[in-house]
Amino acid sequence: MSLSRRNFLKSAAVTALPAAAVATATATATATTTTPTRATPAAGDGSAALHWLEGGVPAFSSGTTLGVPWPRGRHPQTPAFALTTEDGQPVPVQSWPLAWWPDGSIKWSAHALPANAGLSATLQLAAVADATAPAAAVTVEERADSIVVNTGVIRCSVARRGPHVIQAISRDGRDMARNGRLVALAANTPDSEAANTVQRHYDSAVTAVTVEQRGPVRAVVKVEGKHSADGRAWLPFSLRLYFYAGAESVRILHTFVFDGDENTDFLRGLGLRFDVPLDGPLYDRHVRFTGEQPGLWAEAVQGLTGLRRDPGAAFRQAQVAGLPCPPIAQMAPRVSSALHLVPAWGDYTLSQLSADGFQIRKRTKPGHGWIDADAGKRAAGSGYIGGNGGGVAFGLRDFWQRHPTRLDIRHAHTSAAEVTLWMWSPDAPAMDMRFYHDGMGMETHAQELQGLDITYEDYEKGYGTPHGVAHSSEITLWALAATPSRERMVQIAAAVQTPPQLVAAPAHFLASGVFGGLWSLPDRSTPAKAAIEDELDRRFAFYRGQVEQRHWYGFWNYGDIMHTYDADRHVWRYDVGGYAWDNSELSPDLWLWYSFLRSGRADIFRLAEAMVRHTSEVDIYHLGRFAGLGSRHNVQHWGCSAKQLRISAAVYRRFYYYLTADERIGDIMRELLDADAMLEATDPVRKIADAPPKGQYPARASFGTDWGSLAGNWLTEWERGGNPRYRDKLLTGMKDIAAMPHGFFNADRAGYEQDSGHLHNMTGDMVAASHLNSVFGAVEIFAELIALTGHKDFEQAWLQYCTLFNADKAAQVRALGMPHGGSPVLRVGHSRLTAYAAWRTGDAALARRAWSEFFDQPLKPLRTLDLHGPTVLNPVQEAEGVSTNDTAQWGLAAIQNLALIGDYLPGGAAK
To answer: Which residues contact 901 (CB under 8 A, 6 or more apart)?
Structure first.
C-alpha cells in the first residue's frame, strides 16, 4: 500500500469528519436550531452477511466475484477473510483490496469464490488469520509462447503472439477446443451488392498478454491485439479470460474499439471462433441451441428418429437424451445397413436479427441448400456441439438484447466442428456508423446554435464521429465431459444470461459510509414517507417497462434510455436531436445505483449494470482526438458535438466496479485521469458568446460539469491507491475554490491549468451559477470529499452554495451582493442541496425549506395511460409529462432528502 494515501490529509485539515453514512449529524457552522438526525444501522463486528442477488440459491456457479465495503478504521491492515455458509461450513475464498480510506484502512475488498462454492442462501464474510484454500487451486504457468491456466478441471493455453487467442482448452488430457480466434468481416461500402464493394476478412493478431491474477481461487489473463489482414491492423481488442478453481468453464470479456473511418469501414461481422475436435458415430454427435427460456432445440448430426424403419427404442431414447447409443450391433439391421443413406447435417445457424425474432437453419454441407429448422422470439444465446467424448457449450450474454447476433456450428459431420459466436451477425445489414444527416448547411457557431434552438442538437461538423467508441461482450465456454442433459443445458444458458452474483445487504452498505452516505434504507413508517417510497418504486417500474415496450435494445443501444417524450406521436423523441438517447444526462445512472444500494433489488441492479456497461463503452471515447470525453445526448450516441467530462465521469462507473471488482470498468476509470487535457481543444463553452474569456489560462472549466467530474475521477484513483499526482490535483482544486471571494459562485466558469490542477477566479467580484453544475455527480462527490478530508473551507464554500442556490433573490443579495442568476428549472433536484446544508448545519428552518422546494408542486404520482390500436405501433404505456431529466433528479432528491432531513418531512415524523 502506498504511503501517499496516509499523507492525503497533509494539505487539508488533519481531523477528518466522520463518514456521512454512519455519523450523527453535527453542526459545522453556527446554528441555534436542533440538529436533524437519522437512524443508521450499527457497523457491526467487522463481518458481512452476503446473499445471492436474485434470491434463493443458484443451480450452479462457475465461480463468482464481489466487492464488500467496510467502515473507516474497521480493518486497519489488509486482513485475510474467511467465508462460511449458513450452517457454518467453510468456503474457499480469494481476497484482495479494491480501495482504502485516508487512514489506510480497507474501504472495499474483493472476494472470489470457486465454482459451485457458497451455494447457500446466506454466507458470512469475516476477517481471520488465514483463509480457507480451495481443494484444487487454479494455477498459472508462464511459458515462452503461452500462458497455461489449470482450474483443476480444465487446462487453457493462451497464446502470447499470433492469430490464436486460445491455443487449446483441454479436459482429462483431451483437447475440447482449439484455435480460438477473433474474426471480423468488413467492407468499404454498406451495400454488399454495389459494384465497387470490396470485402475483407480480418483475424486477430495478439500483441500482448498479461497475467493479472494467479489464484488460488481466481486467475485473470488479459490479451490485447488488433484485427489484421493485407498489411492493415485495426480494431484494437482486449480479452479478459477469467478462470475459477474447480470450474469447467472460462468466462471471456471481449472489448473492441472502433478506430476506422465510418465512411469507408463497414463491419459486416464480428465474432469469436474456435474448433471442436469430434470423433465417434455421427448419430452420437449432438447439437443444442437454447431458445426462449427454458426452451431448448436439441438434435443429432445424424438423426435416428422419424425414420421409416425403426432402429430400436433404446437408440431413439438415447439420442433424444443426448446419451451414447448402444453398440451398433444392437441396431435393427435394416437401419444399420442403410445408415449411409441417412443425411448428416453438418452446419447449423441460430440467427437473432431483432429483439423479437430468431431462426434456426441447418444444411448438410456447403454447396447445398439451407432448410428452416425452427424459429422463436428471444433465444437465450447458448449452444453446444459434442459427441461421446464430450464437447463444448458456449454462450453470449444479452444475446437478443444486443442483436443482431448469431451462433454458428459448421462441419459437425467431420473430425472438427467450427463454432462462431457472432457479436454482430453477418446476416444483418452492415454496421453503418455514419452521422445521420449532412449538416443541413450549418457551418458557423451561430448557425449551430440556431439548430440547437430548434432541435436541441448541438451539431458541429466533424464532431459526430464514432472513432474511438467501444463495445464489450461477455462470452462463456464450457469444456464438458459429456453432452449435457436438457435440464443442464437450460441451466447453463440461464447462468450466461444472469450470472449468479453475491452482494452484501443494504444495511451493510449504509453502515460502511461509502458513496457519500446521502441515502437511507426504505422507510414507510409514515404515510408521507410511504408516498415518496411508493413513487420511487413507481418511477423505476415505469422505466423498466419502457425498455421492453419501446424496444430499447440493440448492439449499440442496449443499456441506455431515452431523454424526452413526444406525447403527440406517443413515442420518445428518438429522432429529434438532443432529445433522443440520454447518455447519462442529469444522472439516471446515480438514481439507479443509489436505488439499488438502499433496496438491494436485483431488477434495479441489472438495469444499472446494463447501463454502466453501455455508457462506459459507447458513450465514451477510448482513443483519438476525444479520448477520455463523453458525448452529450443525441439521436446517435456519439453524435453530439458536446464532448464533455460530465458524461465520461467515473462517478457513474465506480458503483459497479466496487460491487463486482470488474477489471474492465477499472481500466476505463483510469483512462479518464488526464481527460482534463482535452478541455482546451474541446472547450465546452466555445459557442457561447458571453462566456468569460480564457485570458492567460489554458482552459476554462465549470466547477460542476468539468471540475466536479475530474474530482470524481481523481478521488477514485486516490482511494484505489493510484498515482498521488491526482490526489494533489484534487486537493489543489478544493483549496482554490475555497479561496475564491464567493467560493463556488466564482467557480461557475474558472480558469484552469491542466498541469497543476489550479483553478482561478475569472469573474472577480461578480457571481454566477448554473443549474447544471450540481446535477452530474457533484453533490455526491463533494459530500464524499468533505467527509474524507475534513476540509473546512471547502465545506463552508459548498454549504454556502447549497444554501443559496434555491434561496430567494433577497437572500442571495444579502450574502453575495447580487443575485447569482442561476436558472430555477431544476428547483426540485436542487432541494437536496438545501437538505444537505440543513443536515450539516443543523438548521431546522433550512430543512423545512428544502421540503418546500421538493414539493414546489404537490407530489403527483406518475400516472400511466395504456395505449393500443392504431394510435401506436404496439401496446405501450405512456406517462403524462415524463422526462428522464426530471425523473433522475426527482429520484435523487427524494432519496437524499429522506435520508438527511426525513424527520422534517411534513407529516413524516414517526409517532
So the answer is: 36, 835, 838, 839, 847, 850, 851
